[in-house]
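Final report, Chapter 2: Outcomes

The project's central promise was a pipeline that accepts a single protein chain and returns its three-dimensional structure in a standardized token representation, suitable for archiving and comparison. That pipeline is now operational. To close this chapter, we reproduce one record exactly as it appears in the project archive, with the input sequence first and the structure output second.
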Amino acid sequence: MKDFMKYILVILMVGVLPLGLAAQEVSKKKKRNPQPFRWVNPPVASTPKMVKHATFKSPSMEVPVGYCIYLPPHYAAAPSRRFPVVYYLHGGRPGSELKSVRLVNHIHPAMQAGKVNPAIYVFVNGGPVSHYNMPKQKEAQGETVFIKELIPHIDESYRTIAQREGRGLEGFSQGGRGTARIMFKHPHLFVSAAPGGGGHATEKRISEEGGRESESLVFAKGDNTWDLARRYASRPKSKLNIFVHVGDKGFNYQNNIEWMKHLTALKIPYKHLIIRDAPHSAQIIYQKNGLDLMRFHAENFEQALKGKRK
């Protein structure tokens, strides 16, 4: 009987193991094959109800482009009031305006409770290669669509403070890379910028290899977070308020430390926040220290606008 049971157990193990391995392979394939890129991604079940999805027609591509927008409770309550805007750049590739919208589950309660001054948050679709412009690819100009098309559309369509004193930029992971690059290229557009968890080791390789990230990804020379920091430091510019943040358990932790040393060597002022026991996750970082990030933008808006009025 014991031998028979062993035989049955062996048969079960032989039958089960391949299924388990197959499931792992399917899981790997899912991770390796993201959803095809779309400029418009309709809301899903997990999209917070406080978030509005909308589109505008891209003048350069002549196609609809999606974005998500959070309007604070004060927006409807004060119909003549204008509000500052934080543009949030999602992580991952390819782009989608839905990728970071669940952060509103932390943003909305803080604003509703009066813990931070109200602001509009816009969640950007970064394009086929998130937040980058790809040379000679008309449909892959994520940075240009954001800077030259989305921002003017938001200012025309909503009651924004349509000047740099009322405009902030933030992003995490791939969006942290995008935030760091874009803030140095367009400091005249933003008064505050909070790059989080960016892959600055990859950006350094791009710098060292003349724009090449991989065989299939080659960007314009100098379009990276290291060279752009050097350019920003060497020229007259609008004063950026910078807040670098990263979790100390995240895989980009060490390269963020190295990049901050680069900023220090260039004498670029910045604040930083190391979130203890936080992995590479914007959601967990917002659970732990989202209020610090929101207040960073809010305080810079307040100071800049106050200075503008004097």
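Archive annotation: The chain has two domains: 1-33, 35-309.
This record, like all others produced under the grant, will remain available to the consortium after the project formally closes.
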